[in-house]
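pls ignore typos typing on phone
zinc ion + seq
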Amino acid sequence: MIIKLELSNEDYIKELEEKFSDIFLNNSIKSDFKNNPYTNYLIYLIDDKIVGFLNYYFMYDRMEIVNFNVLDYFQNRHIGSSLLNKLMEEAQEKDVNNITLEVRVDNEKAIYLYEKYGFKKVNIRNNYYRGVDGYLMVKEFNKNRDIYILGIESSCDETSFSIVRNGIEEIATVISSQIDIHKQYGGVVPEIASRAHIKNITYVLEECLSIANMKMENITAIAVCFGPGLIGSLLVGVTVAKTLAFLYNKPLIPVHHISGHIYANNLVKRLEFPLIALVISGGHTELILMEKDYSFKKLGGTFDDAVGECYDKVGRVLGVEYPAGPIIDKMASIGNPSYELPIPLNDDSYNFSFSGLKSAIINLVHNEEQRGNVINKEDLACSFQNIVIEILTKKTMKALKDYNIHNLILAGGVSANIGIRNKFKELCEENNINYIFPSIKYSTDNGAMIAASGYYAYLDNRLSDLTINAESIVELK
Ligand code: KG4
Ligand code: ZN
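k done
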């Protein structure tokens, strides 16, 4: 007989903890019941004695098997399959999308049983069992059901919501930019940014749902950018995401901002792996190697300023409004590279440095001004942009060659730059490299990229509970 354990079944709880003491050594079942609203235990009884159990979480639209064990003496008597059958019945009843579990890669017997039940190995969790790898296995129900992810981005000065179907198809996106507010200060003022997010965020959500002609009930899961970024700004998006997840009982997916920029490319064309991503934005300059979805290996990054930051600071001395990137790009296209500037960190590494280049330009402008000479701004913009293009393409093409990779993507606000795109396009075609650039409107921050990235995080089971926090600095993992 199989029954569902309740907190009130004190005798069974005690018996279960004693019989499987190696599993429950540090975990009391009572406190699990009290602290975890998702936890469930099925116990298998013979003559009113426990011989096996299955502990699983039922969370919204999915289940996860956490512990599953049958006493040695009772193995090979279909007790395990009976417990699994019971779980499958409940999964069908509750209409869940999938059941996931982790299993040691060397536990062939268990893997065989799970495969019989339609579980598939989808990922390897390195070192999951202290020295032994684990497989992540998933059994999908309702395979044809579309997955709608609501993406929320508020890490800097854009408040944005988007709904994306199955990670590739954008249904609706609304971006409320604060650029006009911050322009007068020459850059983003954090406190003003947070207040503007608070003011706008519910309207942006309503507009997004209305354009998509959808209700929150139709959304499968909520993805939110939790960092890195401005802490006050991030908190607004994260708080809204948690509130919506709680109110509508939806899974919550934390998404790293850079992963969002990377997956903006997935909305143009499905990513092909392995690939190298050159991430160039206002806060980041990084080369990242991806072997598959949600696997990020950083090859190198900037030691100081990010390339977008450098554009914005050079813009200031040229008297260009924030954000200066797009304007410098235009100026560069009509100028000549007549100024001589240093090529920063021109070595064989995959790292970058932009503060020296920035300082060289600031000094050059001041010196010329002191001498009473007029700067040709278009020429200086062109000279600057040429150096940026040279160093970015040199290091990226080297990484592609060194790692023998034939797929390149650009990501982040600076990837909107026409000069940078043109040069990469030319080099990729020359070297037989497939390339994807994000659409210009989704090069800078938006909710669609968070939703697209959130979809693959959802498939990889990277969900979070309501204790998730915003983080101003956080590694991409
Ligand atoms: O990705 P993003 O919206 O925000 C961050 O995550 O940092 O990037 C904003 C940055 C700004 O520094 C802006 O000047 C730069 O992207 N940017 C450009 C261009 N468009 C935006 N930089 C160079 N050329 C452009 N066309
Ligand atoms: Zn960004």
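DSSP finds 15 helices and 17 strands in the chain. Residues 257, 261, 281, 412-413, 445 surround zinc ion (ligand 2) (CB under 6 Å). more later
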